[in-house]
Amino acid sequence: MGKVVFKRPKSLADVPTHYCPGCPHGIVHRIIAQCIDDLGIQQRTVGIAPVGCSVLAYNYFNCDFFEASHGRAPAVATGAKRARPDLIIFAYQGDGDLASIGTAEIVHACNRGEKITVIFINNTVYGMTGGQMAPTTMPGQVTTTTPYGRDVNSIGWPIRVCELLSSLKTEAFIARVSMHSAREIVNAEKVIKKAFELQIANRCFTFVEVLSSCSTNWGMTPVEAQKWIEKEMVPYYPLGVFKSPNGDESKN
Ligand SMILES: Cc1ncc(C[n+]2csc(CCOP(=O)(O)OP(=O)(O)O)c2C)c(N)n1
Questions:
Q1: Whose CA is nearest to atom 10 of ligand 1?
Q2: Fewer C-beta within 10 Å: the chain N or C terminus?
Q3: What is the mean pLDDT of each run of 10 residues along the chain (252 residues)?
Q4: Nearest CA to ligand 1 atom 1
Q5: What angle do CA 28, 57, 83 make, to 5 degrees?
Q6: Distance of alpha carbon 210 from alpha carbon 136, whole angstroms
Q7: What's the fold here for domain 25-243?
Q8: Residues framing ligand 1 (Cβ under 6 A)
Q9: Rounded to an integer, what is the distance from CA 209 to the centroid of its chain?
């Protein structure tokens, strides 16, 4: 009989997901569920689901969940954490959700130093609604609302959320990871675990951006999409730890 070397984390529900083939949302869900298991916090973890492709995230985790309106996950997370500081609260948001309609929410939650964990999925488009331009769309990138490519002269440059949040004085853990290779996925798990550990230690606001893909709306195969992340996104969105709380030596 074969030896079991890989299992579904118990914090991940045993159900099929609605995600497209090759979509990294499922990988990130698995990573979060593994962290919850490893840290032994399943009974006190509450997730906040966004509006976007991961709107149904509450169906995929075996822990309590709130559903927030578009962009408002950090506000809902703030309320949950302030009411029950003993709970571990994570918000899960896409780039349309967090970096467009929810920009004010994330900036102020970080600035207030809310002791929550925010996982930010940057796939450069509004995936659920059909691949429209997001604030994170790359210069020249063709989307359904930028058929000639994103023109930075009229629409502006993609927003680098990690860099923006890192400029705030408040103590925080801010990092960017990527889904473009097995090596980066393994690293992403370490970084996301670190964010949860800091919340458990009641240290600071914790934020992990995940460079992701949307093969369906990018019109690529999943493998082509992974290569596109590495070639086009990583040079503009550098990976690493941008900010750590005082005394923490995290390096990516
Ligand atoms: C207040 C409000 N405005 C707009 C919408 C429509 N809407 C639903 S999902 C979405 C974009 C989601 O994109 P993103 O956050 O990047 O997540 P993804 O689907 O790519 O994972 C929008 C604009 C909405 N549901 N509510």
A1: 52
A2: N
A3: 90 97 97 98 98 98 98 98 98 98 98 98 98 98 98 98 98 98 98 98 98 98 98 98 84 52
A4: 70
A5: 105
A6: 12
A7: Rossmann fold (3.40.50)
A8: 51-54, 70, 94-97, 101, 121, 123, 125-129, 134
A9: 5
